[in-house]
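Marked as duplicate of an earlier ticket. Keeping the data here for the record.
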Amino acid sequence: MTKTEALALLECGVTELAYKLSISTQAISQWPEEKIPLAREYQIRDLAEGKEPLKNKVAVD
């Protein structure tokens, strides 16, 4: 999935996408245009289907 396809799929801009993924707009700007990171692609597809995207959970002991 390209960055442009991801934005079009969710019908949003970079700022809104960053908010939905709980990441910074700077992180998105570092993605290559031709192929976004696979984990982010899965999250974006979940969002497009109305599901809550998987979030990184850190175990604290």
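See parent ticket for discussion. The chain has a mean pLDDT of 90.
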